[in-house]
Known about the structure:
There is one protein chain. The chain is of the alpha+beta class. The chain contains 9 helices and 11 strands. Strands 1, 2, 3, 4, 5, 6 and 8 form a 7-stranded mixed β-sheet that branches. The mean pLDDT is 95.
Amino acid sequence: MRRVMEAAYAKVNLTLTVTGRRADGYHTIESLFQSVSLCDKLTLEQRERGFWLNETAGIPAEENIITRADRLLRREFPNLGGVAVTLEKNIPTQAGLGGGSTDAAAYLRGMDRLYGLGLGREGLRALAAELGADVPFCIDGGAAAAAGIGEKLTPVESHLPLWLVITKPKAGCSTPAMYRRIDEMGESLRQRFTTQEAAKALEKGDLAGLCGSLYNVFEEVTALPELSEIRQELRQSGALAAMMTGSGSAVFGLFHRREDAELAASVLKEDYPQTFCVPQV
């Protein structure tokens, strides 16, 4: 039986604003996504029939987004063969790092390879859009400016090598709850719209410009005291800028040099075990 392996890379939001809410309940956004080397790993082994997924991170297999991705594929390919999936989970949950989305994208890519489905990138992204807002980006990763619910992507060519220290506090953030807070604030919420500015900074290799354009609206509705403490520790450890990613609760700091990032990560890891020093990918 054949076997394929896929790396499922995490992402950070270098910018994130909420631009509206659609009739179906989905929120529209503007964001600059950036993949980082922190990743989950999927192993897909061909079987004659059926679908099997290991339970991981306390999530029953039937509730995992990978199971939803499998159902979606079998709707499109009713005669699809079986598969046993082993997920090695390294990306923290409820962190704003896209852990579930990137797992689903890796599963779609892996099954396309395992069974020669011929979906191609466009076909994969079309299926990914049915699973969640971040999933289409996770098909290819890299850097991209996102609009709509996250499915409208404009690739960005980065000329700015970055090292990131990502720290996840014990508490997580519920994405639906965070969006409810955004809705409750309504027009009283004043946002910055810096995605295009940040994208240009990446393309030009302008580190100061990128740091000055970082923005995440969810920081304005987050009540976790640990987040400000982590940001402060990152800045004191040499981060050029520090901000929460996604709807939280992970915080990342930007560093220009690997050695500075590694030193900062070693310091934060003493208080926050889920701290990672990673480059962009």
